[in-house]
Amino acid sequence: MAVLVTGGTGFIGSHTCVELLEKGYDVVIIDNLYNSRQQVVDAIEKIAGRRPVFVKGDLLDEALLDEVFTKYDIDSVIHFAGLKAVGESVRLPENYYRNNIVTTLNLIDAMHRHNCTKIVFSSSATVYDAGEVSPLKETCRLGCTNPYGRTKLFIEEILRDVCVAHPEFTAILLRYFNPIGAHPAGLIGENPNGIPNNLLPYVTNVALGRLPQLNVFGNDYDTPDGTGVRDYIHVVDLARGHLNALDYAQTATGAQAFNLGTGNGTSVLEIVRAYEEENGVKIPVNIAPRRPGDNATTFADATRANEILGWHAEYDIRDMVRDSWNFAKITLANEEA
């Protein structure tokens, strides 16, 4: 029996594969490498001491899904695969609905055909209504301002309906806040293709001299230093949350949502200062206009994950920025050598 990890060579997926392998799970990755690299599989093996099965493919390929479920006797699924850039989703909504929702429907259909009834879904804090006040609880009002967030919310609703129609089916919906950092080994981390969309890869590229400065979008929010406050969580903490969720799914019923965050807010400039101080680098900053739809403050109430999943975040901000820079020095710099 094996765990299928869709999108398993991506940032969060690769760290989760390491945790699964270290805990003795057999892991099968399916990934189309749209925004990741196959060399990540080698890095996963080097860290975990065991190699996952890697299948290059797309969840739009139903025949391939059947082949994978049959050949590897898939017992449960952790579903990361999907497009994830908010700005791009506004420009290309059809791509996001097709790649995120249709692929998930294909995956669910394959699970039904092969009697696989446990799924952990990579959701997002973007499913919460922008008018809700932090700390955000799972009971807060839901609503989205962009196609990316809507795909996450729609998939949550699809999984809820599937669980009602098929009582044997269990879906654990993990709502991430802002994952950053990298594995302490420095061999896997966030390394997107093209110009980064997320804060830490952008900071790292500035530190490496690949980009001239960090654009900070707005410094006039109602926050201590005027920049946006978010709940940054170490990717290893996040990955471990998936193992807790997978374990819980074995006896749980229905669809259940959990926030994965630290419960603390940190501003953009606080992240930049911590990065500079911890790593001895300088990050030039340019204050740019606010981006439409950005909130001043967003952070989690992770009580439910603490109490039910037995999970809590262990790493702090300095761990996150140190591990991010360590990954940059070991892995990203080697790509240019």
Describe the structure.
- There is one protein chain.
- With 337 residues, the protein is α/β, with parallel strands linked by helices.
- The protein has a domain at 2-180 and 233-260: Rossmann fold.
- The protein has 11 helices and 14 strands.
- The chain has helices at residues 11-22, 39-48, 62-72, 86-91, 93-113, 147-165, 199-207, 235-249, 268-279, 303-309, 317-335; strands spanning 2-6, 27-31, 53-56, 74-79, 118-124, 170-176, 178-180, 214-217, 229-230, 232-234, 254-260, 266-267, 285-288, 297-298.
- The strands form 4 sheets. A 7-stranded parallel beta sheet has the order 3-2-1-4-5-6-11, with helices on both faces. A 3-stranded mixed beta sheet has the order 12-9-14.
- Strand 5 (118-124), helix 6 (147-165) and strand 6 (170-176) form a beta-alpha-beta unit.
- Helix 3 packs parallel to helix 5, helix 5 runs parallel beside helix 6 (147-165) and helix 9 packs across helix 11 (317-335).
- The longest helix is centred in the first third of the chain and has 21 residues, at 93-113.
- It starts with a strand and ends with a helix.
Give short descriptive properties of this protein.
42% helix; three-stranded mixed beta sheet; alpha/beta; Rossmann fold
Per-chain topology:
Elements lengths: L1 E5 L4 H12 L4 E5 L7 H10 L4 E4 L5 H11 L1 E6 L6 H6 L1 H21 L4 E7 L22 H19 L4 E7 L1 E3 L18 H9 L6 E4 L11 E2 L1 E3 H15 L4 E7 L5 E2 H12 L5 E4 L8 E2 L4 H7 L7 H19 L2
Parallel strand pairs: 1-2, 1-4, 2-3, 4-5, 5-6, 6-11, 7-10, 8-13, 9-14
Antiparallel strand pairs: 9-12
